[in-house]
């Protein structure tokens, strides 16, 4: 169940970054930056990071440039700790 959630939230984060980039280019109403960060915080960090680079979106904003990879590193550490605790 946890793996399925992480896969789904990463897909959603990736697509959301793509949608926001499309809206930015076409001068349409945008997705809030807090929403983009929230998707990363709840487990979509990899999808957010990939979306940033694939769509060339938010890559010049320091809060995203450093914040999204930081969030992703925290998730990776948490997953490793969880997996290691199950091995004991």
Overall average pLDDT = 95
Q: From the helix content, strand content and strand pairing, which structural class follows?
A: mainly alpha
Overall shape: elongated
Q: Number of helix segments?
A: 3
End-to-end separation in angstroms reads 21 Å
Proportion of residues in helical segments: over 70%
Content of β-strand = under 5%
Kindly provide the radius of gyration, computed on alpha-carbon positions and rounded to a whole number of angstroms. 14 Å
E-strand count: 0
Task: Outline the low-pLDDT stretches.
Answer: none
Properties at a glance:
88 residues; mainly alpha
Structure report:
The protein has 88 residues and is mainly alpha-helical. Helices cover 82% and strands 0% of the residues. The protein contains 3 helices and no strands. The chain has helices spanning 2-25, 33-54, 62-87. Helix 1 packs across helix 2.
In short:
This protein has 88 residues and is mostly helical. The protein is built from three helices and no strands.
How are the secondary structure elements laid out?
Elements lengths: L1 H24 L7 H22 L7 H26 L1
Helix pairs in contact: 1-2, 2-3
